[in-house]
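Dear colleagues,

As part of the handover before I leave the project, I'm documenting each prediction I ran so the next person doesn't have to rerun anything. This entry is a single chain, and its sequence is reproduced below.
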Amino acid sequence: MSNPQDTDQHTDQSYTRSDSQTRTDVTAPIPSEELLSTDTVAETTIAETDPPKSATRVALGWVTMLAAALALALLLRSVLFQAYYIRFTSMEPTLQNGDRVLVQKAGNSLDRGDLIVFGRPSGVSGMQSDDLIKRVIALPGEVIKLQEGVVYINNQRLHEPYLDSNRITTGDLSVACPEMVGEGCLVGENEVFVMGDNRTNSTDSRTFGPILTNQIVGQAILRLWPIGDFGRI
């Protein structure tokens, strides 16, 4: 027969163990891996529940991009480059009627042989808004003379490989030249003397005299069309 006191002690010990075990379970630390995992799940859930962009926001983004592209194109056109359409034959055989060229706006120094675009001089037939394109033949301070169908610069014959082999250059320079030196025309400071490559069908400095450099829009540097002739000119 058991002693009641022993029973009570047993009971107290059992309760004490049970209470200790309970406290241990409640206060046991949660492993750090579980905290990281929980945070990751929470972040993923937030990301997955972000609302999609509205159609208005998408459209506004496209409009902004197109406006920026248009502004850049206008800036390039007004400051750096401009495309021109050739409508006449005065630059044949170098440029044909219907060609398109890219013109670099004025700013670079000019050399003999450059193709330049400039404002139409007053008195020249055609629409005043239509610019002209010609080749630089004589530079400031030089004397240009035409003799027996050949161009001379400072009494030196000018080599012109861009002309057809049978092309000759004629004209009376005294008609429009502000200052004649003997039979030649003196190109003034800040002026250039220009001519078309199609010498028998070109209205140029032989008709309207040397042009001022501040009339120059820019230099034709590239043929854009026809695509088969794309390249520098």
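The radius of gyration is 43 Å. The chain has two domains: 4-48, 82-232.

All the best with the project,
I.
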